[in-house]
Amino acid sequence: MIKTEEQLKELVKQKYTEIAFQDKETNQSSCCGAGGCSTEVYNIMSEDYSALEGYNADADLGLGCGLPTHFAKIKTGDVVIDLGSGAGNDAFVARAEAGETGKVIGIDFTPAMVNKARENAEKLGFNNVEFRLGDIENMPVSANTADVILSNCVLNLVPDKRAVINEIFRVLKPGGHFSISDIVLVGDLPAPLLQDAEMYAGCIAGAIQKSVYLNLISAAGFIEITLQKEKAVIIPDDILKNYLDDKEIGEFRKGSTGIFSLTVYAEKPVEASACGPGCCC
């Protein structure tokens, strides 16, 4: 069983390096691209981007669990930061909304993903989209930089979610806001699921309780916290059978445990400094 934060990060980095070289179809038939874990051909969580302006098929690896750019209220000229930017999918959609006068910065800690995103940006001829290699728990960005921060199915993979949320507060301009899609839990997952490294890289086991997630956002100093979208995520039986017997699957299905994809919006107060209540200046 993987225990330390550094081991978890290394696992995610290894899996997402593999994903960077897989095609979208392979990723969509898996758990957030983590591996071919289901014989059913479908994507457990992601949404269809293809109708959105700025969509680029080469940048879409089928890894998301929402459409945060659709809800992010990006305006022309905004500085937008995409956390866990992957091959650039959300960043390019954000660029279409921010326009030529805006700027989009993608941050990812997997070198293969950053390289892939940069190649995509060069092919598209975008000079106001850049991709930085870095850890979103300690972003390579100055305080009070972004008008908007977005992220798609990434915070659930990060061991220290409090640190990321505090970093979001630091990097946003006063009056700025975020829109983040993520996976959360209601009730406790069966222990075998939580103990499996592959499920961690596949998004589910890295998720935390919905109430804890929202409390971390509030504790960091954010206001106007709003659930923009929420939907249940169903784990098919052929995945659950890797971890639970038939009786346990039946109990799991009848229990109060829920796995949800949600999109959360929140604002940094206009009068706020770089640090909120939850971080140390």
What would your notes on this structure say?
The protein is globular, with a radius of gyration of 18 Å. The relative contact order is 0.15. It contains 11 helices and 8 strands. The chain has helices at 5-20, 24-28, 68-71, 89-98, 111-124, 161-171, 191-194, 197-201, 210-219, 237-240, 246-254, and strands spanning 79-83, 103-108, 129-133, 146-152, 172-186, 208-209, 223-232, 258-267. Strands 1, 2, 3, 4, 5, 6, 7 and 8 form an 8-stranded mixed β-sheet that branches.
* Biggest sheet overview: 8 strands, mixed
Low-confidence stretches: 26-44
Assembly classification: single chain
Using only CA atoms, what is the Rg? Answer: 18 Å
Query: Gap between N and C termini, in Å?
Result: 35 Å
> How helical, in percent, are the residues?
25-40%
Query: Which structural class matches the secondary elements?
Result: alpha/beta
Q: Return the string of H and E elements.
A: HHHEHEHEEHEHHEHEHHE
Number of strands: 8
Described by the principal axes of the CA atoms, the overall outline is globular
Q: Give the mean pLDDT.
A: 81
Strand content: 15-25%
* Tally of separate helices: 11
